[in-house]
Design a protein that fits this description.
Layout (H helix, E strand, L loop, with lengths): L9 H14 E9 L4 E8 L15 E3 L6 E6 L9 H10 L5 E5 L5 H9 L6 E7 L8 H11 L22 H10 L1 E8 L3 H11 L7 E2 L6 E4 L7 E2 L19 E2 L15 E3 L2 H15 L1 E4 L5 E12 L12 H13 L12 H7 L4 H11 L7 E3 L15 E9 L2 E8 L2 E7 L3 E2 L6 H19 L2 E17 L3
Length: about 475
């Protein structure tokens, strides 16, 4: 299967829009007796159209643009790669679809929706969930509530329980369009029932006269804003023109600036706040990092033992990260809210506050006894199990210390996804673990400082592997 991926700037995006409108043609292929309308297809005259925007081309197979089906394999496996039999089925089933891909988080929604909206022929989004009812990010819950309940004015999915109940960087009108353009189909608790899934997919591409009842597939959930008779078939393109969602338009040019450092607390990069740090770190790693391909076949730029000092982390939050998401992430980190909903192998809250007792409260007590101590090391790493664990914690150590009458927090990440950057060096907004992790840790730092009745001081991050994912274009 040929893997296609293409990113483009705003100017080229507009030019492609004008050009490809001339290359499209809407044709009638059938009549729909259920909806009493013509069944139409958008025919693309250009080989590279519709334009495809991908984060990781290894996770996606692009097939026939005339197909009305897109399939998402909800990622529920703890390992970096799905089982061999699932990957084999992925390749087999992709021959029927416009696009087939693995999908992990709501943050990945912008790539999925951008590609669906670029192709009006896609009127079915089939989500396959193997083994578990959902993954730790509650991706399926997010999709179901999007189709059933929509979003509020800030893009927050109504009635959604996910840690990030929002499809970042997807405007509300695009979300409305995708739920109008495509039906949502969910099959849960799949246990290698490949033949049944293949039968379902074949029914979705049939003409109206060969429509199949939803009831023929007991595990199938079917949500449609158009089709009310629970019939499965291809009703054609519901819109005659693509909706273009330019994911690169919000990416920023960033430039690393050499600064004089306070040698006692930071040796690599020093920043004023979290927004400044996000851009400076990304620019530094882009400029100085070495290129590797990780175990998921994603291109990385990596700096090892990278240290970042942030003087006032919470003074300014980077663009592209909704306050609702950061607050919810922080609530789970600090209070364990939503922890039971997740299927992750660990949570930071559990490792810090529960597994070995409340390490934070013990640290506060000991610092009150001796505010010059250097022993307040909080550990999240379990030597007995984590060296064998494919989902071991990325955050491993927190060291808190009082110096100059302020509380410093020093943290160590074994591995840290800082963000995503294009090959040209444009930083994608709203991506990466750097911002939510440091927002939560800085909130914890402020909490400890308040308990000790002192000011919160510098935050120092050390990443053994601080890496950027590269959004590859060609």
């Amino acid at each position: 299967m040929e893997i296609m991926y293409l990113n483009f700037t705003s100017d080229s995006f507009k030019n492609n829009l004008i050009l490809n409108r001339k290359l499209m043609k809407v044709i009638k292929i059938d009549t729909d007796p259920f909806l009493n309308k013509d069944v139409k297809k958008v025919r693309f005259e250009s080989d590279d159209f519709p334009k495809v925007q991908l984060f990781n081309s290894n996770d996606v197979a692009c097939g026939n643009p005339s197909s009305n089906v897109a399939i998402a394999f909800a990622y529920t496996w703890e390992d970096d790669m799905p089982p061999e039999e699932v990957m084999d089925f992925f390749q087999k089933i992709s021959v029927y679809t416009s696009m087939t891909g693995y999908w992990r988080t709501t943050n990945g929604g912008k790539y999925v929706f951008a590609n669906l909206l670029a192709n009006p022929n896609v009127n079915k989004l089939l989500v396959l969930v193997f083994g578990k009812r959902d993954n730790g990010h509650l991706l399926v819950d997010s999709l179901k509530n999007l189709w059933e309940n929509g979003v509020n004015e800030r893009g927050i999915i109504n009635n959604c329980k996910a840690p990030n109940p929002k499809f970042e960087q997807v405007p509300n009108d695009a979300l409305e369009r995708v739920t109008q353009q495509s039906d949502l189909l969910i099959v849960r608790d799949i246990n290698n029932e490949f033949e049944e899934i293949e039968k379902l997919v074949k029914s979705l591409i049939q003409e109206p006269k060969n429509a199949i009842d939803v009831a023929d597939f007991p595990k199938l959930e079917f949500i449609s804003k158009l089709i009310k008779n629970n019939k499965l078939y291809d009703d054609g393109a519901r819109f005659e023109e693509p909706y273009y969602l330019d994911l690169i338009a919000s990416a920023k040019n960033v430039r690393y600036e050499e600064k004089s450092l306070n040698e006692s607390i930071g040796r690599s990069i020093q920043c004023q706040n979290l927004a400044d740090a996000f851009e400076q770190v990304a620019a530094f790693v882009f400029q100085n990092g070495s290129s590797i391909i990780d175990q998921r076949k994603i291109i990385n730029l990596e700096c090892r033992s990278l240290t970042v000092t942030i003087m006032n982390p919470l003074d300014k939050i980077p663009e592209g990260f909704s306050k609702e998401y950061l607050d919810k992430y922080c609530d789970e980190f600090m209070n364990g809210k939503g922890e039971k909903l997740n299927d992750f192998a660990y949570t930071y809250h559990d490792r810090i506050f529960k597994r070995w007792g409340n390490q934070i409260e013990r640290a506060i007590e000991k610092i009150k006894e001796d505010n010059s101590t250097r022993r307040m090391l909080i550990s999240l790493w379990s030597p007995e199990e984590d060296i064998y664990n494919s989902s071991a914690p990325c955050l491993d150590f927190i060291w808190i210390v009082i110096r100059n009458k302020t509380l410093e927090m020093h943290v160590v990440f074994r591995s840290h996804h800082l963000g995503t950057i294009t090959e040209e060096g444009k930083l994608m907004t709203g991506e990466g673990a750097f911002v939510p992790n440091l927002f939560a840790l800085s909130t914890l730092q402020n909490y400890i400082a308040e308990k000790l009745s002192i000011k919160s001081g510098p935050f120092v991050l050390t990443d053994f592997s601080g890496h950027l994912y590269v959004n590859k274009s060609s």
